[in-house]
Input
Amino acid sequence: MEEDLPTLCGRTYRSPMLIQNIARWSAAPPALIAHLLRQEAVRRQPQLRTLLTRHPNAPADAKRGA
Output
């Protein structure tokens, strides 16, 4: 999975369903969660942002609301 991280973090995600599934994936890497939190689709939908910030692997600054 480590070698796939640049590929996953280099994309723009527009599908709320895909973002929601990644947010519910317990093994989602912190870098991917941080990348998703910067996406326009997540900024427009508070429920996606909440799912991502509550993820156990979410970066600490995301949990603080930075």
Observations:
- The two ends are 27 Å apart (CA to CA).
- The chain has six helices and no strands.
